[in-house]
Amino acid sequence: MKKILVVDDEPTLVATVKYNLEREGYHVVIAADGESGLSLARAECPDLVVLDLMLPGLDGFEVCRILRREMAVPILMLTAKTEEVDKVVGLELGADDYVTKPFSMRELLARVRALLRRAEAPAVEAKVLTAGDLQVDLRRREASRQGQALLLKPKEFDLLAFFLRNRARAFTRDQLLDQVWGYDFAGDTRTVDVHVRWLRQKIEDNPAKPTRLLTVRGVGYRFEG
Question: What are the phi and psi torsion angles at 28 (to 5°)?
Fold first, then answer.
């Protein structure tokens, strides 16, 4: 049975989330503040953490940063804020996905299933993808450019590997979310734009004028290599 840690200080929301997760067959543990959430994560070793951004004491940003430093558990961040900067900061700190309140339980459960599915996916066979001075080792989950290691977040790596497998093909943001994030994304597609921007900073000579990871006007993105 998969174990999910929910860290949130809204009792009604927590009770609803716990009920629905348990109906799906998950074991749920609860924390109402950042310090307790960290302690439970260390003690319980959950398979996934559902983490609220606005917490008493340590906020969700700090908890996410510490968790990502200590363990590889998938993190689904909950936020009542709609500003892009808050979502971007959460992703930069290592959150795997986010849901903006208010959200439907159907959406939350879909994202939980997707993150757990990705976490337990079997290791890929040894294979290295190349594009000019870029190398992506799928087995070791390592990428390099001109022989220098690229420090990629998990979704950055997955997105780069997908583009290298499907070079010269244009994909919409929804297609990329479906193929890389593993489910049909029903909300904000700016997640793709954020990750593309990060990748360009690492694989392009001039991120402002990319020659590899291109924007296809009216469609989405295409990788040329």
Answer: -115, 130
